[in-house]
UniProtKB/TrEMBL annotation, chain A:
The keyword Aminoacyl-tRNA synthetase does not apply. One of its GO terms (cellular component) is plasma membrane. Belongs to the binding-protein-dependent transport system permease family. The chain crosses the membrane at residues 9-30, 85-107, 119-140, 176-196, 216-241, 273-294. Keywords: Cell membrane, Membrane, Transmembrane, Transmembrane helix, Transport. It comes from Roseobacter cerasinus. This is ABC transmembrane type-1 domain-containing protein. Residues 81-294 form the ABC transmembrane type-1 domain. It is found in: Cell membrane. It holds the Pfam family BPD_transp_1. Its main location: membrane.
């Protein structure tokens, strides 16, 4: 009797937790299928006529047909979505390759400057994106350009011979560069704990068979740390996909990402709740899919990140 | 001979891309920012054209009541968010520490809020807090209770609630993992000696979980200073300055007031604050480890 009541309370607590954590998400999902009239009129609950009109409005620039309720496609969501995908995917891949190489070097080799590198990686992890805003804005607009006389701009000009006034700001690569740099410390840190577990004997066997250091790394070590790579990939993708502040400072009309588009539409006076919920839902879908497919890796990554501190 | 040289060079070849990228896009910008914080710097100027003003930006900020306000808001936000999340998260973990059927399913549901973009989280909560349309006020209405002006009078509290919603599962999952990896023998011994559930929690479980809890707390604390998008979407720092945390103020100083020098100085203050916190936390863990080791050594001498 006692334990039965205990059990009931126990499952009640769990149900409340699950309801609290996914309730708002479900609410957004439901609202994204409602017309604004239905959202505002207050006929709450599930009694409404679902419509995909909001999604049509959001995606009007990539649809193959013209939604009849729209005369003009003002929301360029499709373009922003493509930008987001390009930026998030490229920066995730680059971060993983570069970060896993660095983590391997830090774990497996003793070399000069190793401690400096590993301490500074730890230190820059705590730098908030807001702190990077000012210098990145200044540098990407004024110095990292092909025709100016700045430090690195001049170097790039001398080596590659750039002509026009091309700056990193406003390009995909500009945003990708800062995302890779921002995520590297975390990826290096998390992958170290996975690389340590790779048995050295495997690498030595490969080396005896005549493999060079890069072959050993790419053909032997990388396949063995796939779970770690998956965890690191999800966290990197999540940051690159969701980030707003730096992207808003660095992007222009053609390279803006989905979060910027949502914030811009929110700050206008008359909020179209249905459309904005639909865009929010579209932005949330990729992370939700990752969560459902790879929650085990996410939790491994989270615990490895916290426990191996 | 060439093989030996390749082997000696290979760590540098593995490190080089990461070091180059971090030097260009993290270290150099940070240095640039420190340098820029001593200048009267407008966005249209390059840093070389900006006038050198010494410590003026720092002194202006030091005496600026708005900056104080925003610093207080930041500290309040971080303190409440981290302490409430720690209490709820650890409490739930202690409460639910047993074999749960469908545990992986539960965890999947709980990490969902963390994976969703902060912008979208802000969006959802802004809808729920809406004075007339929002879920909370509708519920209050249907219960016959007076409406609450969530984002007006209680803006800071509302922002804190949204963050607690998003991040408590993080602490819950980490502390549950820590709890379930505790040595069973210690708990078993306590139970045999007749310790009550409370005694077990206070004298055995919590002290054994402490290292993980401290790291978790530190991670959350650092993250609490990074929060920006949720607040931006929910309140844009308002009403007044009541929710304008430092990160938001930095971005507004840079983009609206167009004073990059002041924004840089503010970033440096924030960075210093975070540095102090991190160093303090690490020193504390070191000290605690040393103490634990000393106690253990003493216990061994006694026996």
């Amino acid at each position: 009797m006692q334990t039965q009541r205990g059990n009931a309370a126990f499952y009640a607590v769990i149900c409340v937790m699950v309801f609290m954590s996914i309730g708002p998400v479900l609410l957004m999902l439901v609202n994204s299928f409602k017309l604004d009239v239905d959202i505002i009129s207050g006929t709450s609950g599930l009694l409404f006529l679902p419509t995909i009109q909001n999604y049509e409005t959001a995606l009007c620039d990539v649809l193959w047909y013209e939604p009849e309720h729209l005369d003009f496609c003002s929301l360029k969501f499709g373009g922003a979505f493509v930008n987001s995908i390009i930026i998030a995917l490229v920066s995730t891949i680059l971060t993983l390759v570069i970060g896993s190489m660095a983590a391997y070097a830090l774990v497996r080799f003793r070399f000069m400057g190793r401690d400096t590198v590993s301490i500074s990686t730890l230190m820059v992890r705590m730098v908030p994106p807001a702190v990077l805003l000012v210098p990145v804005f200044g540098l990407w607009n004024n110095e990292f350009c092909l025709d100016r006389d700045g430090l690195i701009g001049g170097l790039i000009r001398d080596t590659f011979g750039g002509r026009g006034d091309v700056c990193l700001a406003g390009t995909h690569s500009g945003i990708i560069l800062i995302y890779v740099a921002m995520n590297l410390p975390f990826v290096i840190w998390i992958l170290q704990s996975f690389i340590v577990q790779v048995p050295r004997s495997l690498e030595e066997a490969a080396r005896v068979d005549g493999a060079g250091p890069f072959q050993v790394f790419f053909l032997v070590v990388l396949p063995l740390i796939k779970p770690g790579l998956a965890a690191a990939a999800i966290f990197t993708f999540r940051i690159a996909w969701n980030e707003y502040l730096l992207a808003s400072a660095l992007s222009d009309r053609n390279t803006k990402t989905v979060p910027i588009l949502i914030v811009n539409n929110m700050s206008e006076f008359n909020v179209e709740w249905g459309v904005i919920m639909a865009t929010g839902m579209l932005l949330a879908i990729p992370p939700i899919i990752f969560t459902l497919l790879a929650s085990r890796q996410i939790i491994t990554g989270m615990t490895a990140g916290a426990v191996k501190g | 001979m060439s093989i030996a040289r390749v082997n000696r060079l290979s760590p540098y070849m593995f490190m080089a891309p990461a070091v180059v990228i971090m030097a260009i896009a993290l270290i150099y910008p940070l240095g640039y920012m420190i340098w820029g914080s001593f200048r009267d710097w407008a966005p249209s100027q390059t840093i070389g054209e900006a006038e050198f003003v010494g410590l003026k930006n720092y002194i202006t900020l030091w005496n600026d009541p708005n900056f104080h306000e925003s610093l207080t808001v930041t500290l309040k936000f971080a303190f409440f968010v981290v302490s409430i999340e720690m209490v709820i998260g650890v409490g739930l973990a202690l409460l639910l520490d047993r074999d749960i059927r469908g545990m992986s399913m539960l965890r999947t549901m709980l990490i969902l809020p963390m994976m969703i973009a902060p912008v979208v989280v802000g969006l959802m909560w802004r809808y729920m807090y809406h004075p007339t349309v929002g879920t909370f006020n509708r519920t209050l209405d249907s219960l016959g209770l007076p409406r609450v002006d969530w984002l007006g009078d209680h803006a800071l509290m509302s922002v804190i609630i949204a963050d607690i919603w998003q991040w408590t599962p993080f602490i819950f999952i980490l502390s549950l993992a820590a709890l379930q990896s505790l040595p069973r023998s210690a708990l078993e011994a306590a139970r045999i000696d007749g310790a009550t559930a409370w005694q077990q929690i206070i004298y055995i479980k919590l002290p054994l979980m402490m290292p993980v809890l401290i790291v978790t707390c530190l991670l959350r604390l650092i993250d609490a200073f990074k929060v920006l998008e949720v607040i931006l979407v929910l309140t844009e720092g308002g009403p007044g300055l009541s929710t304008e945390i430092l990160a938001l103020r930095i971005s507004r100083t840079a983009t609206e007031f167009r004073e990059l020098g002041v924004a840089a100085a503010m970033s440096n203050y924030l960075l210093l604050l975070l540095m102090l916190l991190t160093v303090g936390m690490f020193a504390f863990t070191r000290w605690q480890e040393a103490r634990a080791a000393r106690i253990r050594a003493l216990a061994e001498e006694d026996s």
